[in-house]
Amino acid sequence: MFNQISTQANKLIKLTKSVNKKSKTKVLAITSGKGGVGKSTLTANMAYLYSLYGLKIAVLDADIGLANMQILFNMKPTKTIYDYVQNRATLDEVLLQTEYKNITLIAGKSGHNVIDNSSFIYTRIIKDIVALNKFDILLVDTGAGLNEYVQEFLNIADEIIAITTTDPSALTDVYALLKMISNHKKRLFLAFNQTANYKIGESITQSLKELALKNRLNKNFMVKYIGNITNDLNIQTTGRLRKLFVKEFISGKSTLELDKIVNILREEI
């Protein structure tokens, strides 16, 4: 299924090359394949850590129809990206300032029907945000799975970060992701959530690399392991309270682990 890129995807790849290269904004897509691995939670907390370094961050909730980023930021948006798409709001009106300095949310809308993908509307949304040239990083929190909507966000991103666990089905999805993007992206950053220690993720990443070589995937494509987050009840607790664990537990183990990941990305991107 993922060995060949569809005609539609090829058109998209050509289209994304025209993204405004004069803008300072880097687009980072955070994806997972499998749902329930903590991707959105880590995205929100990464945004906060980036902001502590003085970077201006925009977070786009790209989980089409199942948006939940406003919950993590404890917001009740009156305008969403769908209002912009349907010409009911300007782009400025859907750039929502969170309670955290330097973090802007572009909210999605839960339960909303998927926008027709035939005109690459999502690509144009990203291009419009990038063209503003007001953010250092645009974090795109994609939905679960590897459907055409997720693929569109991945294709336009400057870099892709995959969040996974050691669950076999989650790893199967990561390998499918790797296969899907290996012919038109140069690398994939990989982080493990809910793991016992750093070395587990390191070992599994090496196995994925060996499997890719065995199956003769693009030998120039790189999978880079950037760290792990251990099991931590504080993450669940703060999430239920609509708070960010990296802010509430500044010296917590999970906070320090995620900060290492953020700093690796800062150096690489």
Question: What would you say this structure looks like, in words?
Answer:
The chain has helices spanning 7-16, 39-52, 69-72, 81-85, 91-94, 121-131, 148-156, 168-181, 198-214, 233-240, 245-248, 253-268, and strands at residues 26-31, 57-62, 96-97, 103-106, 137-142, 159-164, 187-195, 222-230. By secondary structure, it is α/β, with parallel strands linked by helices. It has one domain (24-268): P-loop containing nucleotide triphosphate hydrolases (Rossmann fold), CATH 3.40.50.300. The protein has an 8-stranded mixed β-sheet with strand order 3-4-2-5-1-6-7-8, with helices on both faces. A hairpin with a 5-residue loop joins strand 3 and strand 4. The protein is globular. The two termini are 30 Å apart. Residues 1-9 have low confidence and may be disordered.
Task: Please report the number of helical segments.
Answer: 12
How is the CATH topology named?
Answer: Rossmann fold
The run of helices and strands is HEHEHHHEEHEHEHEHEHHH
* CATH A-level architecture: 3-Layer(aba) Sandwich
Rg, Å, rounded: 18 Å
Largest sheet entry: 8 strands, mixed
Distance between the termini: 30 Å
